[in-house]
Every structure is written in structure tokens, then in C-alpha cells.
Amino acid sequence: MASAAVDQGRSFLDSAKVQAGQYVDRRKSDAAQSVRDLAESLRTSSKTFQERPNIRAVFDSAADGLDQLADSVRSRSFAELYEDVEEAMRRRPATVAAASLAAGFLFSRFLKASAEEQRRGNRTRRTALPSAGNP
Predict the structure, then answer these.
(1) Which long-range contacts does 15-24 make (Cβ < 8 Å, 24+ apart)?
(2) Domain range list for the chain
(3) pLDDT tens for residues 81-123?
(4) Is the pTM of this model over 0.70?
């Protein structure tokens, strides 16, 4: 019974991988542009580290890597990309962990900046609207 469940799980994963591959192959251009946009956001974020050139260099290097990834996404199939990512993750788990940590840090900075921008926009709209007591 356990063997059947494992086989069914593998079959499900293989099916999901094929469907994801077909979807990504259809949307490669959009995916590549998203990666390129992320690289640009990373470069913009690195400007906050003017006084720390080492940290800024790491951000810029990551952005360059994302640009290369975007080019690779455009020129290769999903299956090729998936195999490369899987192989890289197995070869360098520490690098994957560090990249995940950096991505999480960037994502949290993005969310924080977006929330602050949203709050500023809400305050601006509230002050621009006339109050109920004032015609």
C-alpha cells in the first residue's frame, strides 16, 4: 500500500512537472521579463547601501546573475532549466540557502517599502478629502 502511494505521488509530481513545463514554455517571455524586473529592483535596492560598497557589490552581482538567468529563460526550454536548477541545488546547497536568505530579505524590504508607500498614499488622500463637517 505504501509503495502504491509513493508511486502515485511520483506520478502526480511528474504530471505536475510536465504541465508546469508546458505552461512555462508558453510564458517564457513573461517569466524572463519578470526576472529582469527583479534584477532591476535589486539594483535599485542596492543604492540604499551607498556607504557599504561590499554589500552593494553583492546586490549588484546578484542582479547581474538574474539578468543572465532572464537571458537563459528566453533561450532554453523549461525542462533544461529545471534540470540545471536541480543539479545546481544538489551541488551547492549552501549557496541555495544563502540565495534564499537574500531573496527573503529583499522580499521583506519590498513589502515594507510597499506598505509605507501605501500608508503615505492613504494619508495624502485623507488630508485631500474634505471632512464631513466642512462643506
Answers:
(1) 17/82, 20/78, 21/77, 21/78, 21/79, 21/82, 22/78, 24/78, 24/81
(2) 22-91
(3) 788 889 988 999 998 899 889 989 988 888 888 888 777 777 7
(4) no
